[in-house]
Amino acid sequence: MQLEPYTDTWDAQDPHANFKADVAHYTIVDPLPTLEGLSRATGVPVPCLVRYVLVKYAASNAEALMAMGPLVLRQMQDRIDAAESAGTTEARLQAYEALRQIVSWLQTGMQP
Fold it and tell me: What is the pLDDT of residue 61?
């Protein structure tokens, strides 16, 4: 499997814009050197580590729902704080959209 960076473009109104921006941001870096080092240190083969990372990520939204960890909660609060600081209807609508997308992502793992 080739692990390519995500370099696509998308419309600002795309319902998955936040996710796509995150994918573009995180795929800039090649993860293989880190996984290869971890493999050497632990003896776990790289393909097994890749599978582990993918499964761990796929399960993370369910874990986030259960723990609602500080990161997700902080991200949600940051959106609200920014909107309240701006004090405009437009900023509040943008915050609502960001929160809607976060909640949508969290629900993804709960859908059959």
Answer: 66
In a domain, 39, yes or no: yes
**Residue 66: CB partners within 8 Å, gap ≥ 6?**
none
Please say whether the beta carbons of 20 and 11 come within 8 A.
no
Candidates 51, 102, 48, 50; CA nearest to 75 is 102
Residues 73 and 112 placed together within one structural domain of the fold = yes
Residues in the chain: 112
Question: What 3-state DSSP class applies to 5?
Answer: coil
Write out pLDDT tens, residues 11-63.
988 988 888 998 999 899 998 999 999 999 999 999 999 999 888 877 776 66
Helices (H) and strands (E) in the chain, counts: 5, 0
Q: How many domains does the chain have?
A: 2
CA dist 75 and 22 (Å) reads 13
The whole domain housing 111 covers 68-112
Q: Are residues 49 and 80 in the same domain?
A: no
Same-domain check for residues 52 and 72: no
